[in-house]
């Protein structure tokens, strides 16, 4: 148990197609290898001319089966790298990475407050979106682009969710997975505490004024009563 078994019976024929054309010849750029039940098509030094659909078709007396792989110049969907717990009160800096053979020229972020578990509403809050053109697109030798974007203004001590798409010269990537984060919550607690303290401090003079007035009235009444 737990092993891997590959069964091919009866034997099959496999053909590889590149953009509709049969790949049947080995070159310095393209090579086909066959070992036992594994058939491999290898492309060396991929360029724009290699973009397109690659199909492997297996045929035997029982029928036919095919699989397609698409090679494209589009960026891969972004992957978030920022911490879910923000260190900023009314803003948050998203960080992520994406893989692209070409410089990223534009980004688009959408975000919103997630639906609260305590809410009776079945309609989530609408998305807000922001886009930014990259003024000086950079090439990255390892094809991994590390990027960031600051969202501001946001509510203090609030949960949010966001998703990102990025663009290169071939078009937009697919949307990232939704990422949940929050603005700094300690600051909100501090603000509430400070507000309570300042309220007490401000109320003390008013109390003293009232007490002083009452004492003055009582003293005046006593003096008048004694005089009479």
TrEMBL record:
GO terms for biological process: anatomical structure morphogenesis; cell differentiation. Residues 74-186 form the Fibronectin type-III domain. InterPro entries: FN3_dom, FN3_sf, Ig-like_dom_sf, Ig-like_fold, Ig_I-set. Keywords: Membrane, Transmembrane, Transmembrane helix. The keyword Protein transport does not apply. The chain crosses the membrane at residues 197-218. Pfam families: I-set. This is Fibronectin type-III domain-containing protein. It comes from Meganyctiphanes norvegica (Northern krill).
């Amino acid at each position: 148990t737990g092993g891997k078994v590959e069964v091919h019976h009866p034997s099959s024929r496999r053909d590889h197609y590149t953009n509709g054309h049969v790949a049947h010849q080995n070159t310095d750029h393209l090579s086909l290898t066959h070992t036992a039940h594994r058939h491999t098509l290898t492309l060396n030094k991929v360029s724009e001319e290699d973009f397109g659909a690659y199909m492997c078709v297996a045929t035997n007396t029982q029928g036919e089966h095919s699989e397609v792989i698409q090679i494209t110049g589009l960026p891969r969907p972004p992957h978030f790298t920022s911490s879910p717990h923000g260190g900023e009160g009314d803003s948050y800096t998203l960080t992520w990475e994406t893989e692209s053979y070409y410089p990223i020229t534009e980004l688009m972020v959408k975000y919103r407050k997630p639906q609260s578990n305590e809410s009776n509403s079945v309609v989530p809050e609408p998305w807000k979106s922001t886009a930014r053109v990259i003024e000086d697109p950079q090439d990255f030798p390892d094809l991994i682009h590390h990027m960031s974007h600051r969202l501001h203004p946001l509510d203090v001590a609030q949960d949010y969710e966001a998703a990102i798409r990025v663009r290169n010269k071939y078009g937009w990537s697919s949307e990232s997975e939704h990422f949940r984060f929050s603005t700094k919550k300690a600051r909100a607690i501090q603000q509430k505490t400070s507000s309570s303290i300042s309220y007490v401090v401000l109320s003390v003079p008013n109390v003293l004024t009232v007490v002083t007035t009452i004492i003055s009235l009582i003293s005046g009444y006593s003096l008048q009563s004694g005089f009479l």
